[in-house]
């Protein structure tokens, strides 16, 4: 059932069937390999993100996009495959309708049982196109906040394997985070320990 959590923030549970989840997981395992593979992100303030990340299309590092892994092995970022862009466009059609954006970035986050993501806004993209989020593996608590502060009011939503969430319009610049993972809740058939989240974005940048 489609739930609008806030204006422009739409949750569509169980959007990916088991076969699609497996395909996407296989692709993520491939993308995680070096060069330009999975890495730990360090913030300028000396912090370390607990979710590890790999990027396609454009490489994100705090707080900009580059064409190479500027803060890692220096390799060119992996290409953003056209089929993933089509999946993103279908996600937008199935949630909002409206213009289907030309996605050119995927950020893939891997969470083990103890990983978290603090409240933040995604404002490094030079486009306000909706962000598409796909979840695989363990269930998490996703915290959707407001545009003004990183604190209350917020809404906690459980995101499960196969769920789609789209963030557009006034929700595009809302604070959000992942305060916890529920270990061992992944579908048994998937073969994933932990959680994986794929976000599709429009960079607004020219290559
Ligand atoms: C709302 N990822 O990659 S997905 C991120 O589950 C990120 O890995 C979380 O926050 C995760 O930046 C949350 C939901 C999400 C993603 C991007 C958004 C919500 C968003 C961008 C704008 C507003
Ligand atoms: Fe985010």
CATH superfamily: Alpha-ketoglutarate-dependent dioxygenase AlkB-like
Spatial strand arrangement across the major sheet: 1-2-11-8-13-6-3
Summarize the helix and strand pattern as letters: EEHEEEHEEEEEEEE
Shape type? globular
User: Major beta sheet, specifics?
Assistant: 7 strands, antiparallel
SS-derived structural category:
alpha+beta
**Which spans of ≥5 residues are poorly predicted at pLDDT below 50?**
none
How many domains is the backbone divided into? 1
**Overall average pLDDT:** 97
Bound small molecules, deduplicated: N-(carboxycarbonyl)-S-(naphthalen-2-ylmethyl)-L-cysteine, fe (iii) ion
CATH architecture: Sandwich
Give the C-level CATH assignment: Mainly Beta
For this structure, the CATH topology is: Jelly Rolls
- Rounded radius of gyration (Å): 16 Å
- Separation, N- and C-terminal Cα atoms: 38 Å
Keywords: Dioxygenase, Iron, Metal-binding, Oxidoreductase
Protein name: Alpha-ketoglutarate-dependent dioxygenase AlkB family protein
GO molecular function, one term: dioxygenase activity
Cofactor: Fe(2+)
What does this structure look like?
- This protein is of the alpha+beta class.
- The protein has one domain: Jelly Rolls (Sandwich).
- The protein is 14% helix and 32% strand.
- It has 2 helices and 13 strands; from the N terminus they run ββαβββαββββββββ.
- The chain has a 7-stranded antiparallel beta sheet with strand order 1-2-11-8-13-6-3, with helices on one face. Strands 7-12-9-10 form a 4-stranded antiparallel beta sheet, with no helix packed on it.
- A hairpin with a 2-residue loop joins β1 and β2.
- The chain binds N-(carboxycarbonyl)-S-(naphthalen-2-ylmethyl)-L-cysteine and fe (iii) ion (FE).
- Fe (iii) ion binds next to loops.
């Amino acid at each position: 059932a489609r739930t609008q959590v806030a204006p422009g923030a739409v949750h569509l549970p169980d959007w990916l069937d088991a076969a699609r989840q497996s395909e996407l997981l296989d692709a993520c395992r491939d993308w995680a390999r070096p060069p330009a593979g999975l890495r730990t992100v360090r913030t300028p303030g000396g912090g370390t993100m607990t979710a590890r990340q790999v990027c396609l299309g454009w490489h994100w590092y705090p707080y900009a996009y580059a064409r190479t892994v500027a803060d890692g092995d220096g390799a060119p970022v992996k290409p953003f495959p056209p089929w993933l862009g089509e999946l993103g466009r279908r996600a937008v059609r199935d949630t909002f309708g409206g213009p289907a954006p030309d996605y050119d970035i995927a950020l893939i986050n891997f969470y083990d049982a103890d990983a978290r993501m603090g409240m933040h806004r995604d404002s490094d993209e030079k486009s306000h196109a909706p962000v598409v989020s796909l979840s695989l593996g363990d269930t998490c608590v996703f915290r959707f906040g407001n545009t003004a502060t990183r604190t209350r009011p917020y809404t906690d939503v459980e995101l499960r394997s196969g769920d789609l969430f789209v963030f557009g319009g006034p929700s595009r610049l809302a604070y959000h985070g992942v305060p916890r993972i529920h270990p061992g809740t992944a579908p048994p058939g998937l073969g994933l320990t932990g959680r994986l989240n794929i976000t599709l974005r429009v960079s607004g940048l020219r290559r």
